[in-house]
Amino acid sequence: MNLEEKQISAEYMYKGKIINLRRDKALLPNGKTSTREVIEHPGGVCVAALTDNNEVLFVKQFRYPYMEVVTEIPAGKRDKSGEDPLECGKRELKEETGATAERFIPLGKLYPSPGYCGEIIWMYAATGLSYGEQNPDEDEFLSVEKIPLDEAVEKILSGEITDAKTQAAVLKLKLLKDSGRL
Hints:
The chain is of the alpha+beta class. It has helices at residues 85-97, 149-157, 164-179; strands at 6-15, 20-27, 33-40, 44-49, 55-63, 68-72, 75-77, 99-110, 121-131, 142-148.
């Protein structure tokens, strides 16, 4: 069965610094049409950085849409849609935590909200960490903490860590570590 839809037209409703919003008319597999609202985003990267002591680097920062401080792994937006995800991950890890890594292991990609958003988040694990100075963006305020991997998994399972990309990457990291593939 064909499940693909085809774009008939697109109308931009908003073009911003980080996202664009457009309304498309789409041709459905049954021949009818429907409206699709799409958020365009250049994508992002997150890094589950594991210390030699089996701890994961986390950042805590205020997330305005939720009006709360969120615990998450280092992450950020690609500077442009063509930026290499790995290079973005290296940059974000260094900026947010001051850490660099000897090894980056791809953990796949994540579609955070595929019903309306085209954002892709590339996930990486990082090992062989060394530390320097943080260099966050001028509008970025965060604190760094290390949480033992098993404790981080428990915080995910209990609902204390709510960020989707963090949940996916940390759980993948745990599975790779426990299976000896990391």
